[in-house]
């Protein structure tokens, strides 16, 4: 009689029940804070006052916090800045990462080992904040949107994952295309990339989320507050109480408009910062196992 490994045995009723309870608790622990943030952002001043802070039970709902938030133009401009940086940065980072990973995945390519060693060296040593700032300043990128993109344009981790995936593509497929007269760029565009949609989508998501959530580069390199991304606006308002709507509150008060509480506005900013990632992730999630795990394990 052969014995099967434990993970191949049929789960017991107790095991299934325990897994269901644990997974339910994990889901609640993740969803409940988001629910509270969204509900508080939609609550009126009376509901927030009665709750004594964060609102957990639905009461009076209103979009006044979002009206106040976008009324002054600061958040609207910051959203446009973050969107532009994310779109341009993700496209540039994907292009550079794909080209570098494909070149380093081909045996016999020029300076293959030295270049790969330099990329791997960045896992152990980073340039540091002061040298990075000096380089950006010498390049004339202070107060430039490019200072939010170029310093983090290529991630060594993403490059290694994509290179490992490219190395798993059968060499016979590439050799047959080369025999037919296809150039390296044509092989990359017509054969390699269509076979790598999963890993490309996942790496693209990594880059996009990184650019969208980044604020430290803006703290270092952007002095003009009209060029601040959304995450820096979020930090300045939530932590330091910056006024996002100059003169708007005085106008609304004079007009008899009921102002939303500051807590609701803070929660509304958090919702605006979270929504894009929450909308994009479900479309890319199905590629995670196929795109990253295969490339990382087999490489």
Automatic annotation (TrEMBL):
Q: Which Gene3D superfamilies match?
A: MetI-like (1.10.3720.10)
Q: What does the entry give for GO biological process?
A: transmembrane transport
User: Principal place where this protein is found?
Assistant: membrane
Residue stretches making up the ABC transmembrane type-1 domain? 79-280
Its membrane topology is listed as: Multi-pass membrane protein
Instruction: Return any one Pfam family short name.
Output: BPD_transp_1
Q: Name one GO cellular component term.
A: plasma membrane
Q: In the record, which residues are listed under signal peptide?
A: none
Q: Which UniProt keywords apply?
A: Cell membrane, Membrane, Transmembrane, Transmembrane helix, Transport
Compartments in which it is found: Cell membrane
Q: What residues form the membrane-spanning segments?
A: 12-35, 78-103, 115-136, 148-166, 263-284
Coiled-coil regions listed:
none
Taxonomically, the superkingdom here is Bacteria
Which family, according to UniProt?
Belongs to the binding-protein-dependent transport system permease family.
PANTHER family (alphabetical): ABC TRANSPORTER PERMEASE PROTEIN MG189-RELATED-RELATED, POLYGALACTURONAN_RHAMNOGALACTURONAN TRANSPORT SYSTEM PERMEASE PROTEIN YTCP
Report the protein name in the record.
ABC transporter permease subunit
Give the species.
Answer: Herbidospora solisilvae
């Amino acid at each position: 009689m052969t014995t099967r490994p434990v993970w191949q045995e049929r789960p017991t009723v107790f095991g299934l029940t325990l897994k269901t309870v644990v997974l339910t608790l994990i889901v609640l622990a993740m969803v409940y804070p988001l629910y509270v943030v969204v509900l508080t952002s939609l609550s009126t001043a009376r509901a927030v006052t009665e709750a004594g802070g964060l609102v957990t039970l639905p009461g009076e709902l209103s979009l006044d916090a979002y009206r106040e938030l976008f009324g002054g133009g600061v958040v609207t401009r910051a959203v446009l800045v973050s969107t532009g940086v994310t779109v341009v940065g993700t496209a540039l980072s994907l292009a550079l990462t794909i080209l570098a990973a494909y070149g380093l995945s081909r045996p016999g390519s020029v300076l293959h080992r030295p270049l790969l060693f330099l990329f791997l060296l960045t896992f152990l040593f980073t340039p540091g904040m002061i040298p990075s700032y000096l380089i950006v300043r010498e390049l004339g990128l202070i107060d430039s949107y490019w200072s939010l993109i170029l310093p983090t344009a290529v991630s060594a981790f993403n490059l290694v994952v994509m290179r490992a995936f490219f190395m798993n593509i059968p060499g016979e497929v590439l050799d047959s295309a080369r025999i037919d007269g296809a150039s390296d760029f044509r092989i990359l565009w017509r054969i390699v990339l269509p076979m790598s949609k999963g890993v490309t989508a996942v790496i693209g998501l990594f880059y996009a989320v990184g650019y969208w959530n980044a604020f430290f580069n803006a703290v270092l390199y952007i002095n003009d507050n009209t060029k601040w991304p959304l995450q820096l606006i979020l930090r300045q308002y939530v932590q330091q109480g910056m006024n996002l709507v100059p003169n708007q509150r005085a106008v609304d008060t004079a007009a008899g408009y009921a102002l939303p509480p500051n807590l609701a506005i803070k929660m509304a900013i958090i919702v605006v910062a979270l929504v894009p990632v929450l909308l994009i992730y479900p479309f890319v999630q199905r590629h995670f196992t196929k795109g990253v795990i295969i490339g990382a394990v087999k490489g």
